[in-house]
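Try it yourself: sequence plus shikimate-3-phosphate, in.
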Amino acid sequence: MNMKSFARPLQSSRCHALHGVVKVPGDKSMSHRALMLGLLARGETIISGLLEGEDVMNTAEAVNRLGGRVSFEGDGLWRVYGAPDGKLTEPDSVLDMGNSGTSARLLTGLIAGHDITATLTGDRSLTKRPMNRVMIPLGDMGAVFLARDSGKLPLTMRGSSRLKPLDYRMPVASAQVKSAILLAALGADGETVVIEETPTRDYTENMLGHFGVTLAQKTDQNGAVHIRIAGGQTLSGCAVDIPGDPSSAAFLVVAALLCKDAELRLSNVGMNPRRTGLYDTLLEMGADISYENRRTQAGEVVADIIVKGGNPLKGLDVPPARVPSMIDEFPILAVAASCANDTVRMTGLGELRVKESDRLACMAQGLAACGVRLEEETDSLVIHGTGKPPAGGAYIDTALDHRIAMSFLVLGCVTENPVAIDDSTPINTSFPGFVELMNDLGAQIEAAPPKKPDPDA
Ligand code: S3P
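Structure, out:
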């Protein structure tokens, strides 16, 4: 029986204290990239700290189906044998990417530079998400796509090892789109240039360098980053050490901040400056967060995070330029904001509508049901904190979104009445063991009683 097809509702009740030392799971973005570059590379790639969540396992499965071989070596070590001569093999059936937008979008770029045909699909959430943003530039390079009218999965694509190079100014701030183009560019006849007006996470650039690819980056006088990469380069297998994911750490950090008696140490968390917007924002709100053992590990900044609870949180306006560096953290920031002692304004959030769920709508509806006063506009969310936690007592529709699920379980740790979520299974996509870990630290998360029928329905 496939247990994934059954929803698992949970509820979180107010807890008294959160204490402990935690190792958060490996960075999801880096894990996808390490597997995919390992597939393209000559020889073997050894990965430590890989996230063993469902999204990354879907990428691993695709790597196997495209001519590479992924094997678990034990003790957190994974080995990837690259495709023979760096050439992908045509998969013999559909590649199912489950819930993972990063897998689906980066794979289109990877496949685009090879003479193979592949069909990609995903779950109920992923098949609603826009793929045009990668299909259009990759199509301009010469890849051929057949997709549903609105540019959604499932799609079938034909790649080519003689793509045209592209000169592309990014219309949206998206690391997935940038990465898809950079991966395709390896199969192009000439130099591709990608220009990012608002820089997004740069793991693809950094990791390509680590695998021996030459790529030039320059920031112009307006702050836009120009990335140049020549086609036809060979990748060499290498060792990749993946730190903890700052987006996963964020749930524990906010849980501790909101709880009066809390102190957590999160060891070895990635602190890439293009990922740390939430931490800067929480510090500006008055949070007690400090870093120890800050060091550079395989080209990435990592640190231990020490967080103590109980400080009152101030209101603020989050600068829109900071959005890409905390794009996945707005749901949990919204939870922190609902307990702040003033208003938190978040603007420039249009991209949140096309994540695993419409995160703006899900957070606004869920928080309002918990008693939070807020305003939701097309691309903004304004939350009026009162200095004390909201009442809670709501049953949240998580819309197959792991970050909505974890955010509301964190909120339930401090509300007067428990907060329930309709389904906790999506948490396994990015943070396997989250509930057990939270309970070990002192949280009170357990199976939820059945949802009461809505009298107005
Ligand atoms: C990711 C990029 C972001 C982020 C996602 C992971 C990546 O998506 O939301 O969780 O690994 O490149 P966008 O590129 O759509 O902003």
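One thing you can check immediately is this: The CA atoms of residues 398 and 405 lie 6 Å apart.
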